[in-house]
Write a sequence for this structure.
């Protein structure tokens, strides 16, 4: 029954071992990483760039290659942006759904690069061991989303068309994410300022990570535009990862700020 309901919203699974394997790998790896965040095993960027490993009890700084945060973030997003941009050349004859998906993914990562260059102020570093898997995840997921969509060319559309609601959700998500990133940037007094402060404004009075919430809305919009099994599996994995990351972030704020309000949730107002 569940499968028959899903078939109304999603294209049939493609006859591609690669896309099927990537669907499983993307979901399980992202969900596991989110679970690891809850357990205190963090991807080492942002405020967690120099955390103590719970297994060893040490930071192992001498054994790790560190990048500046700005360089690390550019490394994360640039390959995925180029994958989206290149897809317009590789698949020049696109239907509307594939064109919208390509455009949404390219815009998503262009915004990220723009923020790295002109919005965010950085004071920390990023460990290369954390940057590499994130970079590969963004690049491979972007390329796979586009390829999986390409495989739907000529396949009958799902009975329920979510494409235009997806465009609306994507625009809401990317706008809300950018706005709250802008608010976060205002907390830093200048480049190199390493002090963290409690964010205010927007939805920050309700949840600590509204930028994650809007990123989830962004990817839900992308999955609605696409309506492929791979894109939905990646989005679901992303939800689990950002839930874990936001939970860990809220716990970190409680440990650092005695006056941090317990009424402020991690990700979803009044819920989580």
């Amino acid at each position: 029954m569940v499968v028959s309901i899903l078939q109304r919203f999603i294209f049939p699974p493609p006859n591609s071992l690669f896309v099927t394997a990537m669907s499983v790998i993307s979901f399980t790896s992202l969900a596991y990483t989110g679970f690891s965040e809850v357990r205190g095993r963090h991807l080492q960027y942002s405020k967690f760039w120099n955390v103590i490993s719970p297994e060893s009890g040490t930071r192992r700084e001498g054994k790790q290659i560190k990048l500046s945060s700005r360089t690390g973030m550019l490394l994360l997003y640039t390959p995925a942006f180029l994958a989206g941009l290149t897809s317009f050349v590789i698949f020049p004859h696109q239907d509307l759904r594939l064109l919208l998906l390509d455009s949404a993914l390219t815009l998503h990562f262009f915004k990220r690069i723009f923020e790295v260059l002109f919005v965010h102020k950085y004071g920390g570093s990023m460990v290369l061991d954390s940057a590499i898997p994130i970079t590969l995840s963004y690049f491979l997921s972007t390329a796979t989303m586009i390829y999986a969509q390409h495989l739907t060319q000529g396949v009958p559309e799902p009975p329920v068309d979510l494409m235009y609601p997806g465009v609306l959700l994507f625009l809401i998500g990317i706008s809300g994410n950018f706005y709250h990133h802008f608010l976060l940037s205002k907390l830093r007094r200048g480049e190199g300022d390493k002090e963290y402060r409690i964010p205010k404004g927007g939805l920050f009075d309700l949840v600590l990570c509204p930028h994650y919430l809007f990123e989830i809305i962004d990817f839900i919009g992308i999955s609605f535009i696409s309506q492929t099994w791979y894109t939905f599996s990646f989005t679901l994995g992303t939800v689990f990862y950002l839930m874990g990351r936001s939970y860990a972030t809220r716990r970190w704020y409680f440990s650092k700020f005695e006056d941090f309000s317990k009424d402020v949730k991690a990700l979803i107002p009044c819920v989580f």
